[in-house]
Amino acid sequence: MFEKLGRGGWMRPAIETKNNIVQEIKTKIASSKSTTIIHYHGFSVQDLTNLKLQLRSEDASLKIYKNTLVRRALQELSVNNLDDVLLGPNALVFSATDEIVGPRLLANFAKEHKNLVLKSAILDGKVVLYDELQVLATLPSKNSLISMFASAIISPLINVALAIKAIADKQLTE
Predict the structure, then answer these.
(1) How far apart are CA 147 and CA 136, in angstroms?
(2) Greater pLDDT, 107 or 134
(3) What is the pLDDT of residue 37?
(4) Is the pLDDT of residue 8 over 60?
(5) How many other C-beta atoms can be found within 10 angstroms of the C-beta atom of residue 78?
(6) May I ask the CATH architecture of the domain 3-139?
(7) CA quadruple 115, 31, 138, 86: dihedral positive or negative?
(8) Which of 42, 51, 96, 167 gets the most CB atoms within 10 Å of its CB?
(9) Are 22 and 67 in contact (CB under 8 A)?
């Protein structure tokens, strides 16, 4: 990633390398169900490793990029209003299969690790700021929401079917 200067010195990445990184960020954001921006200052390597393992188990990943490259990628994707968020040590969490899983796992992890702060997220190309993100983090997973919705729809139908069956059984016994 860095080019060798000679005598053990290193120089900044080449423009092509930066452009490749910006393209990688754009691809990851576009292909993810959600992208969460977190502040992780003061984390140990072990804390980051534990977080990455938890995220990986839920089909999510954490990657640290330079803020300037993230800004360029967001500009190219026409995602605005995140310049204030991209200050300090940040990481991006990409959720591949469920919009809520990244913020929910991060919020749970933040309860034990006060250095982790959820800053913002991108859902379907729209910016979700801190307050809305806190609400999203408390929601159950997408599959749980779908099953709860299905139960709410099916429950009255089952009650009607049981009532009709009880009436039919009563008429048969008479």
Answers:
(1) 18
(2) 107
(3) 92
(4) no
(5) 7
(6) 2-Layer Sandwich (3.30)
(7) positive
(8) 51
(9) no
Residue appearing with tokens 């990184």: 21
Degrees (nearest 5) of the Cα angle 149, 153, 154? 115
Contact between 61 and 93 under an 8 Å Cβ cutoff? The reply is yes
* Owner of token pair 């009532």: 163
Cα distance from N-terminal residue to C-terminal residue, the chain: 85
Domain spans in the chain, listed from the N-terminal domain onward: 3-139, 140-174
Scanning the structure block, which residue is given the tokens 């990943």? 61
Question: What's residue 2's pLDDT?
Answer: 52
CA–CA separation, 87 and 92 (whole Å)? 13
Other beta carbons within 10 Å of 48: 16
pLDDT at 133: 72
Residue 26 is given by DSSP the state: H
